[in-house]
Amino acid sequence: MSKQYLTTHTIDNAHITDIFSLAATPSALLSASGSSTIHIHATTQPSIPLGQSLTGAHKLGCHHIAVSTDGKIAASAGFGGEVKIWKLAESGSDWQPFGELNTAKGAGKGVGEVWAIALSENGQYLASTTYDGRVNVWDLFGDRSERIREYETGNSGSGSFGLCVDLSRDGKYTASGHQNGAVYVFNNDTGRLAYSLPGLVKPIRTVAFSPAGTRLAAAGDASVIAVYDTKHGEHVGNLTGHTAWITSIDWSDTGEYLLSGAFDGKVKVWSIDRGVCVATHSETEKAIWAVKWLPKTGRNEMFCTAGANRSLTFYREATGV
């Protein structure tokens, strides 16, 4: 059975450059681009108005933004290698600076600059990758100048560029995808590598744990989404249908569906149980850099896409289909 989604709203020229990353809270959508400003739109209002702009957040632009599941802590990574932390004000209306990771202190082994980032469910833990293949975990509620875990993915500290990272909601596991096609899962409790998963040979651009943490999805230049069982570290299936690089994936709140976006502008919704694509949309021929489900507040599912066309496009599941 297929599903249908309708385009409900488009915000043209939401940023002045490509939009590289999206993050969603129960009431807002955060977007980051090659410009220095992070935008926050209110998703609880039909017109999805711009509620706040974090001007000058990253001088060279921002390529990754993440938010805790409860919507109270956010983190952004800039092209200068810096990571800034944001906290939602007690009023629940505005985001305020909450600090910055000291990514340089104690670098020692050539840690390199931060690239991809991810947050745990309550925002306490942040995972990050580096250009030289290392994967780090930080405790944001503790001393932000110290890593609580530092993983190496190569010999003599020369691993493959970590293009993407994710944390399981409980913070127990960190997964990373690399330029050489490798996928790793680390156990943050033991500080050890749990699994080196069979990769897709080509660069992995996006990894994501399911909400329950029982599955991990990984995708990239092979145009295939690989799905793994995280309990046993087994490859349990592939989702095939994209014909271009897959740049972004996101699980629905229930874990029933996976959303994906690709370099050719195609967006797909996949049924995990059936292992098939149930919806495809192509609103643009330009690259999609980010896709994100919005937290479900009503009967119908909603998601947002963004990329090289510099617009935010919102979709809603069609009623009665």
Explain the overall architecture.
- By secondary structure, the protein is mostly beta strands.
- It has a 4-stranded antiparallel beta sheet with strand order 1-28-27-26, with no helix packed on it. A 4-stranded antiparallel beta sheet has the order 2-3-4-5, with no helix packed on it.
- It contains no helices and 28 strands.
Give the topology, please.
Layout: E1 5-11, E2 19-24, E3 28-33, E4 38-42, E5 50-54, E6 62-67, E7 73-78, E8 83-88, E9 95-100, E10 114-119, E11 125-130, E12 135-139, E13 147-151, E14 162-167, E15 173-178, E16 183-187, E17 192-197, E18 204-209, E19 215-220, E20 224-229, E21 234-240, E22 246-251, E23 257-262, E24 267-271, E25 276-281, E26 288-293, E27 302-307, E28 312-317
Antiparallel strand pairs: 1-28, 2-3, 3-4, 4-5, 6-7, 7-8, 8-9, 10-11, 11-12, 12-13, 14-15, 15-16, 16-17, 18-19, 19-20, 20-21, 22-23, 23-24, 24-25, 26-27, 27-28
